[in-house]
Amino acid sequence: MIQRFLHSLFSLDIAIDLGTAISYVYVRGHGIVLSEPSVVAINRNTGGVEAVGTEAKKMLGRTPGHIVAIRPLKDGVIADFEITQKMLTEFIRKAKRGHGKFFKPRVVVCVPSGITGVEERAVKDSALKAGAKQVEIIQEPMAAAIGAGLPVSEAAGSMIIDIGGGTSEVAVISLGGLVISRSVRVAGDEMDNAIIQHIKRKYNLMIGERTAEEIKIQIGSADRLDEEESMTIKGRDLVAGLPRTIEISSEEVREALMEPVSQIVEAVKSCLEKTPPELSADILNTGIVMAGGGSQLRGLDTLLQAETGMNVRLADNPETAIVLGTGKSLDMFDMLRSSSNQNTRYYT
């Protein structure tokens, strides 16, 4: 009891959803304290960090030659170790405000279920070098299911679909473990790129990542809309090299998104095909839950419902379900650590 009391006074526990597009930081006892884009602006001349998060994202495509805005994570894993470390250092520094510079937090980071051992080691090393005292791992589907309030510890099947920026995770969970899981590196970023390529092919117009994301959010859909929409966008004409304005419709955006959406649908069907019959019956009764920012694409729930024949619904908190679930796993830090020491993953 005394040891636990002292731990609460002199330690800091942090949960991090290290996303390809957006990272969330949760501090035990305080909830979500940070939500920022996973972007770092670096000064090429000095090697120093100019900005991290929201301020850095504003610089994407708009920086002078000596400043480069970098997204250090790709497809849910670390693409640039050094820049990821700098980003984590800044996130942990912000989370530690009021705790003093000598506090070294214990950290739980969620990772895609399809991550390799090398990629997992890179995540742990980055967090340790960013100032963490101890680092443990939880898989994204489990974190999403916990955050969405699914009964993951019961002897009944629950199915979660987590669509983030870099990966889409599909899993069937029972008795605290992943019975079946599938991780595909197709998600929100791939949707944005599909829109960019479509507009480039059809209109000879180049648009940036931010514009593509705005198009996806405003008029993008996976299924037919009750009332189709249109949007005016601006870009650079690839022939004349000058700025140009065009109008695009929700129908053609849906056509552009067809390929990445189809890959996500196939991942869901593949998981269902491999699910044991007893758990399939449970899922038929309880339905499928979607989480992650990409799950909010309009019509994706109705399309999946039509393709699987099962009820599909969004989690109450789709964007924050993962970090909330990771935050709840802080209570199981010792179990995560014990599992890691035995070279196994808790929840697998």
Keywords:
single chain, 348 residues, alpha+beta, Nucleotidyltransferase, domain 5, Actin, Chain A, domain 4, 3 domains, five-stranded mixed beta sheet, 39% helix
The main pleated sheet reads as:
5 strands, mixed
Helical coverage, percent range = 25-40%
Low confidence ranges: 1-10, 341-348
Indicate the mean pLDDT: 88
Q: What's the number of helices?
A: 13
Q: What's the CATH class of the largest domain, please?
A: Alpha Beta
CA radius of gyration: 21 Å
Given helix and strand content, the structural type is: alpha+beta
CATH topology of the largest domain: Nucleotidyltransferase, domain 5
Question: Which strand order do you get reading across the main beta sheet?
Answer: 3-2-1-9-10
Give the total of domains: 3
End-to-end separation: 31 Å
In the CATH classification, which architecture of the largest domain applies? 2-Layer Sandwich
CATH homologous superfamily of the largest domain, by name? ATPase, nucleotide binding domain
Number of strands: 18
What is the overall shape?
flat
Provide the β-strand percentage band: 25-35%
General description of the model:
With 348 residues, the chain is of the alpha+beta class. The protein has 3 domains: 2-142 and 322-341, Nucleotidyltransferase, domain 5 (2-Layer Sandwich); 153-186 and 259-316, ATPase, nucleotide binding domain (Nucleotidyltransferase, domain 5), CATH 3.30.420.40; 188-256, Actin, Chain A, domain 4, CATH 3.90.640. It is 39% helix and 26% strand. It has 13 helices and 18 strands. It has helices at 2-10, 54-57, 81-95, 117-129, 140-147, 188-203, 209-219, 250-256, 258-274, 277-286, 300-308, 321-328, 333-341, and strands at 13-17, 22-27, 31-37, 40-43, 49-52, 67-70, 73-74, 77-78, 106-111, 134-139, 158-163, 168-174, 177-184, 205-206, 230-237, 243-249, 288-291, 312-314. The strands form 5 sheets. A 5-stranded mixed sheet has the order 3-2-1-9-10, with helices on both faces. β15 (230-237) and β16 form a beta hairpin. α5 (140-147) crosses α12 and α6 (188-203) crosses α7 (209-219). The longest helix is centred in the C-terminal third of the chain and has 17 residues, at 258-274. The chain is flat and about 60 Å long. The model is unreliable at 1-10 and 341-348 (pLDDT under 50).
